[in-house]
Amino acid sequence: MINNIPIEPMKKEEAKAWFIDYCNSIDKMLEERRAIIENDDYINWLYNLLLEREFMEVLYNQESDNRLKAFFEIINQYGYKRYISTYEFDGKRFYYVLYRDMIIKIGYDIKDVNKYFVSVNKEEIENREVFLYEDIKKEEIEGSMSEEFQKLGDQVTNLRRLGATDEDIVHVLSLRKNS
User: Fold this and answer.
1) Entry pTM
2) How far apart are the C-alpha atoms of 168 and 16, rounded to whole Å?
3) Is the predicted pLDDT of residue 179 greater than 50, yes or no?
4) What is the full DSSP assignment across 121-140?
């Protein structure tokens, strides 16, 4: 598998199990993203924490709270749509986001992509793009569902390539709906 996408044909039951897990992971990711972006609890908590500490580093792992990773992914998707790549400095990749009166630097460690960080930006940022949090929020609320369904469609195409029939795919979706 590459990025959790099968590259070799699977048995029918394996394909069904994989597809159900994949659909559930999309649901979970969308739920996490909605929880972060639809109300301002998380960004306010982050803002207040940064006011107190001015620097925080968070390790992401699947058993712990992964809101920082999900928040970065929202921002990364926003940058991707605008053809703006992460900035890179000192072994880290990051974006700048303006929330209230604070420019937040959010990113990850290049050597350990499971290590995410957020900090108050204290450096000059001439000729650098700074995203407005309100723009990110507006676009995420309006656009995330359609993008995830596009990804789901891509996975259906991939399943067909791997040998799943339309009947198999419909059957898997009906099992998922009933679970």
Assistant:
1) 0.69
2) 8
3) no
4) --S--TT--EEEHHHHHHHH
